[in-house]
Amino acid sequence: MSFLASWDLDRAISLDGNYVRTHFNHLIEAKKNPLKELVIFSLNDNQYLDLISDIIKDGEVRFHVIQVITKLINGNNEKEKESGIQFVTKCLSSNNKELIELAMDLFEFSSIKEIFIDKWNIAFTEKLYKSLARISEHSSPSFRKASLMTINKLRQQVPSLIGLAARNEFDRMESIDKQYILDRVTNSYRFKKINSYPKITIHEHDAWDTIDYAHDLIIKYRNCYSEEFPNIFKLADSLGILVDISTMNTEQFDACLLRDASLPMPIIFVNNARKSEGRINFSIAHEIAHAILPKHQSENFFCYVDDISESNRIKMDKWKEREANEFASYILLPDKEYKSLTQKMDFNSENLYRISSSLGVSLTFAAFKWVKLSNLQIGVVLSKDSIVEWGCLSEKFPYTYGDMIKSIDQTSSACLVLNNNRTRYKQVVNSSSWFEEDYAKYTISEESIKIFDNQVLTLLQVVDER
Length: 466
Known about the structure:
alpha+beta; 9 strands
């Protein structure tokens, strides 16, 4: 309606007062109340927030709104101060260009900037960058250029807050590795100019779980690249996440996601010392989860071998690490597509090697997920020095992991490849070789693959019922 655009509320009431009071009562209330109340009302009613978005298009009104918010945040009334902070946060979390630009104008005030640096800590620049990235794809080139200049200017004024959220984990690393990471951030990445926004942005949804975010990311990746299974390096780059791979002395260290208050996005540091391609790719996917899952976004994550588990072992007890493993599993091998792929294949080592090579995943992970999604009677077991480390059996498999004998039979293919020069061996055995039972009920095909000097991966499949 034209009167809304011109803010001629009195004329509108004179023309049709009942209609205006019924449909636009919030405008009447806004005009009655000073700007401070309007800002406070907007925290609980988005109609008032939309109204603010409209009226700040007028330069004079915008100036007064900025003054009001500045006084709220810098005042002595703690309740009003918190309202001001909540208002700025709400503006940044919106998809409204006017409101996000208003919030960015407020960060020109050092007092407000310092309050939010203290509040957001290591995620300060990241939060601003992500807010602008959400609206950048629908904005003009001049807006993108100007907003990037603003971000670059602000981050130069931010102190380095690297490593505060993960100090204990950081101390587990050898000093030479710690120094390498610190030097890369403080002497290089911190000063790297931001020239663009990421191709893919992730929006927060209160009702979403880990798989919802993973699925959303896969869809957006396919829209960019038309690839069924993602390349993890292209995925990280599309999100604006840098991946730094080096050979480190701390062998047990896999990877870390590191945030700093001056960085627009986290950086993933990966240790490739004695790590396979599949292991490295899983580590990167795991760290991407820490980068984009909302409840993970205020921390640094230093992940070691026990944290990143391609088989989601039950012994994992840190819920954020479990979420990251679940996310990585879905990203690297999306359930629907991977199930469709494996349904066309025989469950054997030859096909596992083919999948591992073409999709850049480890044999262990490829086998584990194959079993998890399968409708066949199959299983996979990882053993170390002839002792079962873990096992996964499909839903249709006639036994459970609890039924499994943990000390492997010496005649098993697992022992044969471990103690001889063979890398793979396949044979048919009785089910009693693997499971506790009074007599053998099934014939089972077992195929074992030596994956490390003392570790063996064994594929099990029920052949026949005895």
